[in-house]
Design goal:
Protein name (chain A): Thiosulfate oxidation carrier protein SoxY
Helix content of chain B: under 10%
Helix content of chain A: 10-25%
Number of domains of chain B: 1
Low-confidence stretches of chain B: none
Structural class of chain B: mainly beta
Structural class of chain A: alpha+beta
Organism (chain B): Thiolapillus brandeum
CATH architecture of chain A: Sandwich
Keywords (chain A): Signal
CATH architecture of chain B: Sandwich
Oligomer: heterodimer
Protein name (chain B): Thiosulfate oxidation carrier complex protein SoxZ
InterPro entries (chain A): SoxY, SoxY_sf, Sulphur_oxidation_SoxY, TAT_signal
Largest interface: A-B, 49 and 42 residues
Order of helices and strands of chain A: HHHEEEEEEEEE
CATH class of chain A: Mainly Beta
Number of strands of chain A: 9
Radius of gyration of chain B: 16 Å
Chain lengths: 156, 104
């Protein structure tokens, strides 16, 4: 148990620190892609991050977006998240973790022909919502799902 | 050094599913080294791009809150057996890697 506890504490430290703050002065990404959106990834607030990533903080909640994530995540360092929607004309899917110190986790740009259905794994500092913002036909739609992170183990 | 990526692409009914695993530490920059007490510098993938026959099918921007050894799965229309799939990533330290595979 003691070993396990130590591991939990370690995880807590590493995950709670889930920020991207050290971006200053680093190499600029290459020419293959559009420049990495530093402002969005270093934003501290949800609205701020969405605005920087998608151009506007205003999103319309939508039932057409499905977020697949566990209700309870035992290990906050690896939380599998899938986002899918039935909407047409999706340009991008933005994934945010509400309680992380810099909420923006990933932006997926989807060219025409790519289905709005992506999966990845994110780190979560503590219990909170995972937010997906879908940009379709120039409008922003969002959905959220609560994930309980039981860092302390034993059912939290 | 194309060993950092594992990729599998499968075409079925006109839709290709791509699944990829990248080996990368994904350090956020806020974790401390327990022995020295010093911060471990941030080191995470910022960009991932995947191309089908040279045409981009997904373009990702990632932050440090994507998990260690990141996983990515997505689907696109089109693509058939033996088409080429290329996936590449670039991190904040300027390192990069890419792999080319065939759709199964």
């Amino acid at each position: 148990m003691s070993l396990n506890q130590k591991r939990r504490v370690f995880l807590k430290g590493s995950v709670a620190a889930g920020t991207l703050g050290a971006a200053a002065g680093l190499l600029t990404p290459g020419a293959v892609l559009a420049a990495w959106n530093k402002n969005a990834f270093t934003a501290k607030g949800i609205d701020e991050a969405i605005a920087a990533a998608d151009g506007s903080p205003t999103t319309t909640p939508s039932k057409d977006i499905t977020i697949k994530a566990p209700d309870i995540a035992e290990n906050g360092a690896v939380v599998p998240v899938s986002v899918a929607t039935k909407m047409d004309g999706v340009d991008s899917i933005t994934l945010l973790v509400e309680k992380n110190s810099t909420p923006l986790s990933a932006v997926f740009h989807l060219p025409k022909g790519t289905l709005p259905d992506v999966s990845t794994r994110v780190k979560m500092g503590k219990t909170g919502d995972v937010i997906a913002v879908v940009k379709a036909n120039g409008k922003l739609y969002s959905a959220r799902k609560s994930v309980k992170v039981t860092i302390g183990g034993c059912g939290g | 050094m194309a060993k950092s990526i594992k990729i599998r692409a499968k075409s079925k009914g006109g839709i290709t599913t791509v699944k990829a695993l990248i080996t990368h530490p994904m350090e956020t920059g806020l974790r401390k080294n327990k022995k020295t007490g010093k911060l471990i510098p941030a080191h995470f993938i910022q960009e991932v791009v995947c191309k089908h026959n040279g045409k981009p099918v997904i373009n990702c921007e990632w932050g440090g809150s994507v998990s260690k050894n990141p996983y990515l799965a997505f689907k696109f229309k089109g693509g058939k057996k033996d088409d080429s799939i290329e996936l590449s990533w670039k991190d904040n330290m300027g390192k990069s890697d890419s792999i080319t595979a065939k759709i199964r």
